[in-house]
Amino acid sequence: MQHDSLLMEIMAAARETTNLSLQRVLSWMQSRDIEVMALVEHLLGIKRFVERIEPPLQFKDYHKFLIHYLEQCIRSDVRGNEYVLERWEAGYRLATYFWYLMDEPSLPGDARDGAINDLKRLLSRLYKASELRDFVVHSVLEHVLEHPQAARYFQDWRRHPLLRRAYEQAAAWASTVRKEDSMLNIHNRFLGMIGKEEE
């Protein structure tokens, strides 16, 4: 019942037009219910919703929430829910978040490097679960390494007894995929189309 009432509270707040208390949003983000996390993550992707949060949501709070949510999506692999990402969708979201961190000019270098290290630790935890190894390599790391700046962040993986294999497999694929076929290129073209529609 608490689950349903919280979802209803969040959906009601999303329909409002007045400012939202940051503390209220942070309390939603602390939920460990995957459906609640999914709804909050969906809303945090809507500009007009985020602009209502006062004082503004900080990057460090969003980052911590997002990586926890994505890990839960990957581990649980919920199917058929309106908001909860399926495992492969969460993998794609993780790769695009890596790309964002490497390309976002407004992020200070220490914040970027700290966030990328958090994501690497997440991938390492996931890869250590043997049933998720292929997923980590083929659904996330291959696409992360399509980014020209990504390899430098994974130099330590090349020397790690377990993670080296994941890096080598993903790097081999990323080095041979045609640029026009890469997920990074498709993603950037999609963002470009959205930008033109908003002009």
Describe the structure.
66% of the residues lie in helices and 2% in strands. The chain is mainly α. The chain has a domain at 86-198. Strands 1-2 form a two-stranded parallel sheet. Helix 1 (2-15) runs parallel beside helix 3 (34-43). The longest helix is centred in the middle third of the chain and has 19 residues, at 109-127. It is globular and about 50 Å long.
Descriptive terms for the model:
66% helix; 199 residues; mainly alpha; disordered C terminus; single chain; 10 helices
Helix content: 55-70%
Beta fraction: under 5%
- The helix/strand series, from N terminus to C terminus, equals HEHHHEHHHHHH
Question: Which spans of ≥5 residues are poorly predicted at pLDDT below 50?
Answer: 194-199
DSSP strand count: 2
**Radius of gyration of CA atoms, rounded to a whole number:** 18 Å
Q: Gap between N and C termini, in Å?
A: 44 Å
What coarse outline follows from CA principal-axis ratios?
globular
Biggest sheet descriptor:
2 strands, parallel
Strand order of the largest sheet: 1-2
Structural class: mainly alpha
- Our count of helices gives 10
- What value does the average pLDDT take? 89
